[in-house]
Design goal:
The protein has two domains: about 10-25 and about 105-265, 3-Layer(aba) Sandwich (Rossmann fold), CATH 3.40.50; about 25-100, Orthogonal Bundle (DNA polymerase, domain 1). It is about 50% helix and about 10% strand. It has twelve helices and six strands. It has helices at about 25-35, 45-50, 55-65, 65-75, 80-100, 110-120, 130-145, 165-175, 190-200, 215-220, 225-240, 255-265; strands at about 10-15, 125, 150-155, 185, 200-205, 245-250. Helix 1 (about 25-35) packs across helix 5, helix 3 crosses helix 5 and helix 5 (about 80-100) runs parallel beside helix 7 (about 130-145). About 45% of the residues are buried.
C-alpha cells in the first residue's frame, strides 16, 4: 500500500465565482438571455442550478427542468432536443465572449492568497466550464490583475467535464504532481466539489463570492449582514452535501487553512477516508 503524502503539492482553482467574477454573474446572465430570446422565461435560480458543468451540458440541464421543458413544449409543440440545444449553445458562445471582459475582475484577496500558496511550494492549477475561446478573454484580464495559474483546463479539454475527475487528472499531469490526495480542489459549485471528491482530492467549497450566493461584490456589500449570512449558510449546505471537506467564504481565506490540511496528511489522514 502506498502511504499518504505528508505534504500538499498543488491547489486547483475554479474560475468564475471562485477567482474571478464575484457571484459568477456572467454565465447566469447569458443563460437567461438565450432562452428569453425564444420567449422562454428562465429564473436566475434555474440558470444557476447546473453551474460548473460544461456549458452545453448546462444548457441541456436547464432545458430538461420541468417548468422550462413544459414552457418550451407549449410554445413550440415539441421538446427541446439535441438540435435545439446545439442552436442555443451556438448563440451562447458569442454572447458570453462579448460580455466576459466586463466580468473578469479578480475577486479581492485572490492574488495575495495564490502568492502565499506558491510561497509554501504549492503549484497552482485551474479548471473551468468555459471553452478555450472564452478563456482567451479571461486569462489576459486575470494576468493583468496578478493571477496566472500554472495550467488552465477548459471545457472540451477532457473526454468529460465535471463531475467526472478527468480535468483534475489532467491538471495533475500538467503540474507534475501526485498523488491526488496531495491536491486541494477549490470550487464554488457542488458539481466542482463532486469532481474533486471523485478525483480523490481535498475539497474546499466557496460560498460568499460564488454561484451559490450569486451576488456581485457591490451587491454583497449592500445586503444586510443577516441576509448575506443566511445565503452563505444555504450555499454551504449544498457544498457540504456534495462532499466538501471544508467551507470558506472566499479564496482569500485559503492560506490559513492549508496548514490544517497538511497536519491531517501528516497524521495519516486521506481525503478519500474522511
Amino acid at each position: 500500500m502506498i502511504s499518504p503524502c505528508k505534504q500538499l503539492t498543488a491547489v486547483v482553482f475554479d474560475w468564475a465565482g471562485t477567482t474571478v467574477d464575484h457571484g459568477c454573474c456572467a454565465p447566469a446572465l447569458v443563460f437567461q438571455k438565450i432562452f428569453a430570446a425564444r420567449g422562454i422565461e428562465v429564473t436566475a435560480a434555474q440558470a444557476r442550478e447546473p453551474m460548473g458543468k460544461a456549458k452545453r451540458d448546462h444548457i441541456a440541464a436547464i432545458a430538461a427542468m420541468p417548468d422550462v421543458a413544459a414552457a418550451w413544449k407549449a410554445k413550440f409543440g415539441s421538446p427541446c432536443g439535441d438540435a435545439e440545444i446545439d442552436e442555443l449553445y451556438a448563440e451562447f458562445l458569442p454572447l458570453q465572449k462579448q460580455i466576459l471582459k466586463d466580468y473578469s475582475d479578480l475577486i479581492p484577496g485572490v492574488a495575495e492568497a495564490v502568492n502565499q500558496c506558491r510561497e509554501r511550494g504549492l503549484k497552482i492549477g485551474s479548471s473551468t466550464g468555459y471553452t478555450p475561446e472564452l478563456m482567451e478573454v479571461v486569462i489576459p484580464e486575470a494576468q493583468r490583475q496578478g493571477y496566472e495559474p500554472d495550467c488552465v483546463l477548459c471545457s472540451g479539454d477532457t473526454a468529460q467535464g465535471r463531475p467526472a475527475p478527468y480535468m483534475l487528472h489532467s491538471a495533475a499531469e500538467q503540474l507534475g504532481v501526485w498523488p491526488m490526495w496531495s491536491i486541494v480542489k477549490v470550487d464554488d459549485t457542488p458539481v466542482g466539489i463532486e469532481a474533486g471528491r471523485n478525483a480523490g482530492c481535498w475539497t474546499v467549497g466557496i460560498t460568499r463570492t460564488g454561484n451559490g450566493v450569486g451576488l456581485s461584490l457591490e451587491e454583497t456589500e449592500e445586503l444586510p449582514a443577516e441576509e448575506l449570512q443566511s445565503r452563505c449558510e444555504a450555499a454551504a449546505g449544498k457544498l457540504r452535501a456534495a462532499g466538501a471537506h471544508y467551507i470558506l467564504e472566499s479564496v482569500a481565506d485559503l492560506p490559513a487553512l492549508i496548514p490544517e490540511i497538511e497536519q491531517r496528511l501528516a497524521n495519516g489522514e486521506s481525503p478519500v477516508t474522511v
